[in-house]
Design goal:
By secondary structure, the chain is of the alpha+beta class. It is built from 15 helices and 7 strands. It has 3 domains: about 80 residues, no CATH class; about 150 residues, Butyryl-CoA Dehydrogenase, subunit A, domain 2 (Beta Barrel), CATH 2.40.110.10; about 150 residues, Butyryl-CoA Dehydrogenase, subunit A, domain 3 (Up-down Bundle), CATH 1.20.140.10. About 50% of the residues lie in helices and about 15% in strands. It has a 4-stranded antiparallel β-sheet. A 3-stranded mixed β-sheet has the order 1-4-5. β2 and β3 form a beta hairpin. The longest helix is centred in the middle third of the chain and has 30 residues.
Length: about 400
């Protein structure tokens, strides 16, 4: 039996299409928007909305790659600039949450078609709070139902909302907010709510100043008596105090399934950033007459060659884990374990690769003359958001050992 790791024709077209976009559109403005944190990258937004969102010119009759292609897109565009990738006008995490927890009718209503007037849109997910980070079940934001007006009333504050500024303030945007409808029910009381942009009671407090991905806006949102229609609660409104698996409820578990889709994408983002650093490192040393001798015996390799080969191996392992998790999404297979494995491996790999690239390039790698120091700063977030390294390792251990969360913390 032969296993092929070659990309399909359509996937290869996607690689070339998005790499060209990353090289010609993103790299030239990468430093500018790193310096001008929180400024809207108009050149990139306009290009993506008018050209990028159309996708690569693939053969639709043979288009079976689906989620793998999304991860390929993420890797190539983040090879250009990870922060700009997070500024793309798309439903993004908000759309993933609607897809995971919403009914088919809600998915159609909230996700498509978007903005027929031709203007860009953004989506965001508001889950993290000052007292609820890795433990999403500790959410304190509340959602109370007003039977008289048939509206949900949201109260609470959310932090670290990627694309939260655009999604909450530009018409057509949406923010998916996680809140509890019944604190006594624990996780069973946590539901997801769609809040359209500029809804009264939703306030943009500000954006974080960050070490990396500075082109991306990372917002703090306050909800104060924020009213939304009854049918903006995603999925089943009933509080299920029994196992969601037994009842079929898609509340907390449905919302958590968002990460089974988003973690492979974040892993692909990490691979893109790591590859950017590794490509530059190899090209620079080859320019100086120091190529990598792949055919030399291990004992004859220089320390530099051994480092690069190890970096390449880590990068390839992360990529293959990512593609496997994405392929499982395509085929409808549960990928909770594989998504967390990909995210954990890629987060470690990108941090190690980018740090080593700065180290091997010496003072020039540490300077702002080239983008390697920026990629080093961009790298670490891939090991933090969408579940930290520690959380993903816990998930992997629980799935392998078949332990519930109470038995392994």
């Amino acid at each position: 039996m032969t296993i092929s790791f070659d990309l399909t024709k359509n996937s290869q077209i996607s690689v070339e299409h998005y790499n060209k976009m990353a090289r010609e559109v993103m790299r030239p403005i990468s430093r500018k928007y790193d310096e001008e944190e929180h400024a809207l990258p108009v050149e990139w937004v306009d290009h993506w909305w008018n050209e990028g969102r159309k996708g690569a010119p693939v053969d639709i009759a043979e288009a079976t790659d689906g989620f793998v292609t999304i991860c390929i897109q993420a890797e190539e565009i983040c090879w250009g600039d990870c922060g700009l990738y997070l500024r793309m006008p798309t439903p993004a995490l908000g759309g993933s949450a609607v897809g995971a927890a919403g009914t088919p009718e809600q998915q159609q209503r909230f996700l498509g078609p978007f903005r027929e007037d031709g203007h860009p849109i953004w989506g965001a997910m508001a889950i993290t709070e000052s007292s609820a980070g890795s433990d999403a079940s500790a959410i304190e934001t509340t959602a109370d139902f007003d039977a008289e007006t048939e509206e949900w009333i949201l109260n609470g504050t959310k932090i670290f909302c990627t694309a939260g500024a655009q999604a909450s303030t530009i018409d057509g945007g949406l923010t998916v907010v996680w809140a509890t409808v019944d604190k006594s029910a624990g996780r069973g009381g946590i539901k997801s709510f769609v809040v359209p942009a500029n809804t009264p009671g939703m306030e943009l407090i500000g954006c974080e100043k960050k070490m990396g991905i500075r082109a991306s806006d990372t917002a703090t949102l306050r909800f104060e008596n924020c009213r939304i229609p009854k049918d903006h609660l995603l999925g089943n409104p009933d509080v299920q105090k029994k196992s969601a698996k037994k009842t079929g409820d898609k509340g907390f578990k449905g919302a958590m399934a968002t990460f089974d889709a988003s973690r492979p994408i974040v892993a692909a983002m990490a691979v893109g950033v790591g590859r950017a650093s590794l490509d530059f490192l190899k090209e620079e040393f080859e320019r100086q007459g120091v190529p990598i001798r792949y055919d030399a015996p291990p004992r004859e390799l220089t320390a530099f060659e051994r480092d690069v080969i190890e970096m390449e191996a880590d990068l390839q392992a992360a990529r293959l884990l990512t593609w496997k998790a994405a392929w499982m999404m395509n085929t409808g297979k549960p990928n909770n374990l594989e998504a967390s494995m990909a995210k954990a491996k890629a987060g470690l790999a990108v941090t190690k690769i980018c740090q080593k690239a700065v180290e091997l390039l010496g003072p020039v790698g540490y300077s702002r003359k080239i983008l390697v120091e920026k990629w080093f700063r961009d790298a670490k977030i891939n090991d933090i958001f969408e579940g930290t390294q520690q959380i993903n390792q816990l998930i992997v251990a629980r799935r392998i050992l078949d332990y519930p969360s109470a038995m392994l913390r």
